[in-house]
Amino acid sequence: MTILVTGATGTVGRQVVAELVRRGERVRALTRDPAQADLPDGVETVRADLTDPATLSPALEGVTGLHLITFGGAYFAPLTTGPEIVALASKAGVRRITVLHGGGPSGVQAAVEAGDMDWTLVMPVEFMANALEWADGIRTRDGVAEPFVDRLSAMVHEADIGAVAAAALTEDGHAGRTYTLTGPETLTVRDKVRTLAAARGREIGLTELTPAQAVERWQGAGMDRETVDFLLDVYGNTPEIGRTVVDTVERVTGRPARTFAQWAAEHADAFRPQG
């Protein structure tokens, strides 16, 4: 059995690949640049682009399981090629599909659900890896500056997302399921900063930005108004699904979800001063 992982060099895709390799599966990784993939030994890398389904046909040869992302192209725009991708997968003999889904309407999701293959939607809340956005400020200034520092998040370890996707691709009993994935605890920004400080062995300051200051920073970074408004809304009024712990990871994998403290210990060097 060969499993094709799209988005294989991304935050979650790498974890799906790693878990499938750990399970002894034959893995084919799709990327736009195989030379830069840096994936585990034994993983076959192939070049294709989900925005151009014609390039996908060779990568699907002999594939029985497929992990799909819902975006593509240089700016991570939502894919509009879902029906073509699903038709090619069905023709190739794919039997199981997992879809990494961020919530909201998705053409890929709709096409998969309308197809004839067993599908599972994997819907993580905030990635623990998002904390890496603070790494530069912590390394160089020992500080984090964020708005809404008491906002709540049930953030999930990316390795747990990969483990759930791998289970759905290789085990029975997951067809037609939508899996919301969280970590084992709900954390504020304050909690996350304290956890990172403990992991790296050095204090980290926390400055709370006003909404106006946050908007100025985000616009200065090149974000458009739609993105800025989205961030203000999701940070200021986090949806219940993003701050409510569920036990999906443990139910699917048979072990508890990883904590943010575990993630922080694994990535502590990213937050330590260099030199």
From TrEMBL:
Signal peptide: none annotated. SUPFAM superfamilies: NAD(P)-binding Rossmann-fold domains. It comes from the Bacteria. Residues 7-101 form the NAD(P)-binding domain. Gene3D superfamilies: NAD(P)-binding Rossmann-like Domain, UDP-galactose 4-epimerase, domain 1. Coiled coil: none annotated. PANTHER family: PRESTALK A DIFFERENTIATION PROTEIN A, PTHR43162. This is SDR family oxidoreductase. It comes from Streptomyces albidochromogenes.
